[in-house]
Amino acid sequence: MATITLKDDVTGKAVQMPVLEPTYGHPVVDIGKLAKEFGYFTYDPGFMSTASCQSTITYLDGDKGELMYRGYPIEQLAEQCNFLEVCYLLLYGELPSAEKKELFETSIARHNRIRENLRRFFYGFNHDAHPMAMMAAVVSSLSAFFHDRLDIHDYEHRMVTARRLIAKMPTIAAACYKHSIGDPAIYPRDDLSYTGNLLYMMFSLPGKRYEVDPIAEHALDVLFTLHADHEQNASTSTVRLAGSSGTNPYAAIAAGITCLWGPAHGGANEAVLRMLDQIGDIKNVDGFMAKVKDKNSNVRLMGFGHRVYKNFDPRAKIIKEICHQILDSYGHDPRLDLAMRLEEIALSDDYFIERKLYPNVDFYSGIIYSALKIPVEMFTVMFAIARTAGWITHWMEMITEKDQKIGRPRQLYIGQMRRDVTSMQERD
Ligand code: CMC
To answer: pTM for the complete prediction?
Structure first.
């Protein structure tokens, strides 16, 4: 095994640390005995150089712009498999046979309803509640309904929880949307596909005929595959950390949902559309880009840049193609022209080239959602439905780790030195 020798220049003490070899990617120095040997902790805000765990689920190479789930390239999965096959792959580690695929689809359909008393939760929310706020609360509440199968050390309990979550997310998402527009919630149908059902529950009305549009159904399915997992991103790491305390998986996934909501993460797709609406016209693009490059403005080109990708996000390439296909079918959206102009400027501008900022998964996804008549507030909810597959897979991997421990980072304390409490009269 390769090692690296760390030497304390003050004491002269030198200790060999093992270097762990990955299947792909950067070797990782195992610093587990650093504190014991030297009395030091490491300091790495934002995990810039720190691997938080070992994982067998997803690999991404940010320099090459490569993404794989369980070893399969994302381009092949998006082209040849549907979202539920990808969920199966994430959960079980292999693509399903025809028979296993059917069984899995049947099981997802069996779990896609939510209880009536859970449905009533929605009446407690104001009509203008953000759907992500409703979704986080309702998903967290699922633990109050399924405590019969919540033994986190039981394989079957974990798997049924995973299937329940994947199955119920579209139903919860559609109920959030229906509540926000004051329409009655629609019950899922077992004869529709996963994304067909979501569209049906969002856009049909009691008493009215509704035909699922196969173009929209397929576009959503591909988008969900692209969003299903992305190794140790902020929300997945949140799920792992929350779950490491032994809390129930619904609570851990709810923590992931709240983390995803932020504009630096899954909230970026909503932020991109708001940005395009704010720019409004091609003639305002140059002025906007000047603000993006101005250090004092705090304005960012939303949908650009990524902590890991320093090249094209492979998902963005696929999404851009779908975006064109969708707009060919549904009619032109001037925001696509704006987005393409922003991309064109950014890809030839030194500011973006030097910082290796490329379009990410969220740059074009909002335009597709918008063409499918999905409102802006629902964009991150769409992301959450898809990412649930990744979250729950990571939660299962974490909980079954040998010697699994509660996540407990250390800190560099830079606050006050010890001091004594003074009486009220002596305080300023
Ligand atoms: N527009 C303008 N400048 C940017 C942008 C951007 N979108 N992203 C990064 N920069 C600059 C940043 O100002 C900094 O410049 P300098 O070195 O001069 O200070 C440099 O690039 C490095 O940025 P950073 O914030 O240190 O990089 P990070 O790895 O911490 O942040 C990021 C990654 C995704 C949070 C960031 O690129 C960003 O805020 N992008 C916009 C939001 C977005 O699209 N998020 C979706 C990410 S993909 C989907 C997901 O993860 O959910």
So the answer is: 0.93
